[in-house]
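Model it.
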Amino acid sequence: MYKFDREAYDRRMEWYRDARFGMFIHWGLYAIPARGEWVRSTEQIPKEDYMKYFEEFNPVDFEPRKWAKAAKEAGMKYAVLTAKHHDGFCMFKSDYAWNWNSVDVGPHRDFCSELKTALEKTDVKFGVYHSVYEWFHPLYLKDPEEYAVKHLIPMLKELITKYEPWTLFT
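Modeled.
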């Protein structure tokens, strides 16, 4: 059974209290309709209709070197990118995303890798946000335990391994 460890928590949080200022880059397919990241859920958009955003997604203004430089100049200590949001679309190449990622389709870019590489040239730490939700995965609602074991946990291990070293935001 999990037991909260206040001392361990305080040690992890010490860095945040010192850093205080960072960038959260939170966009994906849901940015196209421009009505919030929960748009598919709140508006009950059918999968077939949501798929058009998959075809349209091409963030040509994502310039990680400029963003890393701006973050550094502003005094930021970290930058976090949404690696996967609730729709399941990954901003990195994943063997667990059934080609539902930005490398295999659309812009054919690994946004996590690009940002991480740009930030490595500064002292701004790299981190990712990864949602445990995945609206389109067939196991997500049917069998959450199987979803976690066969999909979520392997994808998280893949992400952590692929982009290490990085800052763990817990």
